[in-house]
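Methods — Computational structure assignment.
A single polypeptide chain was analysed. Its primary sequence is given first, followed by the predicted tertiary structure written as structure tokens.
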Amino acid sequence: MKGKDDPKRNKIEDMEWEPESDPESGEDNNPGDEPEPPPEEKPTDNPRAPGDEGQGDEDDPPEELKDEPEEPEFDHEIDIDDIDHPGWLIPHFSVTKYDPKARWSPNLKRIWAIDMARKLHMNMDTKGKVKKPHPAGKLLVIEKNIMKHNMAKLMFFDASHAYELVYQHGTDRERMYECTSALRQFRVWCPDLCRKGIENSNTRITTHGKVVDVDVGKTKVKKKLEQEVNINASRKGTERVKLWTGTFNLGGNRPPSFEQLEEWIPRSGYDLYAITVQDAHYRKDENEWYRYLARYMGKGHIILAQMTVWDVCLCVIARKGILTKVANVEGFTKTTKDIATHGPRGGCAIAIKYHETSLCFLAVHLPDGVERNKQRWTVMKEIWDDLRIANLWTDLFQQFHHFFIMGDLNYQVEMPFDEALKCVKDKDWKKLTSMDQLKDQMETEGILHGCEEQPINFAPTAWVKPGTDGEYIQGKSKRSLNTPSYADRIIWKNNPAGHDFLPKGYGMTNKVYTSNHFPVWATFDIDCQRPYISVFGFDVTPVQFRFESLTAELPLVLKNPLCQMYGHEVDKPQYSKAGALKKTDKPSWTKETLPLMYPMIHHRDLLETQHFLIMMRDGTEKSSALRGTAVLFIKEAVTNPGKSIPFDLDLCFRGKKIGTVKGAYHMEDAPQTKFV
């Protein structure tokens, strides 16, 4: 349980639990600090639906997973003749069944069809014979592979295994994702299917038994649409998600009772929770804290993922009603090397996608001691270097829409103990935070570049006498002469998406008495982007993004400069022309050596929310080292087609600004496209 990295702990662990009491009633069958362990957990191959593997066709998704009405009454009608491409109402995709242990074989080839009218997914052989149908209502998740743009995974309640599919093109995967999303119960972003002047429409596409041409493998066949197609469409591209985050250093003690936990963690009012504890020495096994927390949260919630390194525990919990909107759940852990100097420190991360918005939560426990200010950042960089999650082309810091760092960062207030106590008594939080080591390092040394923290308007969270509601204690050794400090923090960094991110509150509670730290919480309202549906919209002119010039300034010399560009709606990463530049610390590329960025979806309202990652690398496409990443928000180019848009971006590496990336680009009409 404690010690060096265990490969097994780099996998998200499944949880299967039942509450031992009714949390909503306020009755706790075990209010003390010695919780009885629940029944032994049963392993499952399906981390997203504990207990549902191997169900038969008669089993439906549990009611608590349904967040919207199954069959809303339609209020808008569109005739099939008004749709530019009616074939997307019954699309067929040529795919290959992914098997990492087997070489490619004709036996792995499949046709995957979606019948929008009958609300069916069909796994077919290459001749069109249905091997297995799946009702759309039994789809738990469709997950787009982040590293491979032509791969996706589907998981159904009525299937004992997941389908991992390889598509012929990335655009095939995107269209299948759109059609699949349009069949689901939640609302999708599809302005063209909404009634004029109305934000949300329950739209019915009338088919009149029309026959449409469909490509089945290499053969074009005719398919008759027998029924109408209903889609929950919205003009609004986002859905509001309420997030609760919390951190607590347990101080080696058992967790607080349910009654005290209620002072810290609310059991209602939020969709997602990210919770980390440190110094969880009390555990007899790695899952003890998670079992206790699961019982506290109750039946209406489920642990999406849990990761543990040393005595740092991190988990992400979801309200069951949103479970089908969450995908790409990943976890990773990292222990630091110099245990003799820093102690058993490390970090663990969990990444998820809520619809199309990516979030990552990094939990850390950094070295203590007022004199270890710089060592804390050294440990943080070590964690960053080896934590590999989600998009492996770049580091943690730049790839997510919303990135949270939380835990016992152990940064201290550099102020005499008695003076700090007076500030606490006078509630002079401004003076205390003015001497905070973390804020000073961020301002003077540029660490955690672009990160933000809500205003601290509460008492220091460390170091207090256990059993009291605010009696601060001073250590006896030189290393532990601890001034009352804000050791426990929750900070975040946003990448541009054009959607609202609203910090709603930041505080601590002194009603939990079990540790020498007080627990901290922060809440957020996040507008997460809905799946965009382009296949039923009107045709648009295809576009591409052309870079006219690009120059980077770095603090080190690149022997073989390479520029890599990546976008969520681009088929695959693009690279500058190989060998175009020689050894330099100021690589500069012209339009002839820079790649074109060609999106898979060309609708402008979607493109306005997108961004490109511009990465500086040293080496070749097959083997290169990352040296920094910049983020380019492309809305200005989308809203000004043909106009040259200059940019001047911060180049970041390991959480610090190390240089700049400057240049110009524009959006232009593309000469041709295979898809609309």
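Note: Confidence is low (pLDDT under 50) at residues 1-59.
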